[in-house]
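Form P-L/3: holo structure prediction, ligand guanosine-5'-triphosphate.
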Amino acid sequence: MFDGLKDKLSGFTSDVEEDVDEEAVEGDEDDAADEQPVDESPAEAEIDGHTPEGGPGEETVEPTAEAVASPETAADVDTAAEEPPSGVDTEDEAAESDTPTESDAPTVEDEPEGGATPDDESGGRSLTEKAKLMASGKTVIEEEDLQKHLDDLELALLSSDVEMSVANEILTGVEENLTGQTRRRLSSTGNLVRDALREALYDVISVGQFDFDERVQQADSPVVIIFTGVNGVGKTTTIAKMAQYFEDRGMSTVLANGDTYRAGANEQLQKHAENLGKKIITHEQGSDPTAVVYDAVEYAKANDVDVVLGDTAGRLHTSDDLMAQLEKIDRNIDPDMTIFVDEAVAGQDAVNRAREFDDAAEIDGAVLTKADADPQGGAAISVAHVTGKPILFLGTGQDYDDLEPFDPERIVDSLFDE
Ligand SMILES: Nc1nc2c(ncn2[C@@H]2O[C@H](COP(=O)(O)OP(=O)(O)OP(=O)(O)O)[C@@H](O)[C@H]2O)c(=O)[nH]1
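OUTPUT (holo model):
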């Protein structure tokens, strides 16, 4: 599931890491050339941004060439070191922080031949110590380098069918998450980039999330759920899967075939109802879908059934007639939820249809079917952000139990599985 997208995201993080890696190597070479056993003179202290009187609490690391080129000041660097970004392992940070620690302190063996000794009586580091820290992999992700990678990331997202505005939102998120925290040890840069991307993705796909089970529990019985979406995307199968889902949670269901437009729709839902041992309410082709759902609600009330699952005609969403039907169901039945169903594999088309269905007859959430057959993940990434309504479930196969609650955190994690 979403393997193509996963590869592209991993390409982004490794490209950024690689860039940083190269810079660190360059930094090492510069540092080695520069490493002279000298006492800290006032001039050098100035470059460092600190006076020799500076206490340990004000200590920082001498800027690398990159840091000097960077718009960030030494003070910014200190701040970044003191305030780890969210999502970055604080233990790692503590271990890798710029803040002096005992383990950072050089041992006698670490001193270069004829080298300087800690020369700062006030407790600061010598230049040699600072050079060692730099050589150990302190580095900078330059904004202009990042921009190049963000352009690549944008292409990767768009080619995975992520909607344009959603891709932009992700890029802005990544940039914001990395800006101001550009100075890290190399060993943690990979995590930093991954976390920045992970967080930006999470922000767009978790839009509007609510607890589906809780909402069902809180609604008056029978809970009425109406399913909308175009033909052939797996809507009928999803209704059957939902019946199984409720069965697994000890709740009874009745199915209502509100798709009175299409020949064969009754038989199709009937087959699922038989397979699952569920009651189905149908009317003849061409009759009023609201009447079918109404009858199903009456049946549920009379027979103590917990949930009514209503199919609707999957004609083109631009059809006024279809929208009129949905409005009529809304007016007369006032369903507890209207769920839009489309197939993940439809990518941008699914995203556009979700937006249009939501505009025409407000949805509460979406189910994306055939996620098992979708390498791109664009619809899964985009639908919630575009509609402001959450993806509630993913269809992950043709069996009745191939329905997974959509867990944004798990989805994002799976995109970064090693
Ligand atoms: N791989 C896979 N196939 C699915 C999934 N959901 C549905 N399908 C298949 O998609 C095909 C179409 O599903 P239907 O439920 O008939 O689609 P529909 O939206 O009801 O179509 P209409 O009845 O024409 O409106 C069927 O062969 C289903 O088995 C899924 O999550 N994964």
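COMMENT: Strands lie at 138-140, 183-185, 223-228, 253-258, 279-281, 307-312, 337-343, 365-369, 391-395, 403-405.
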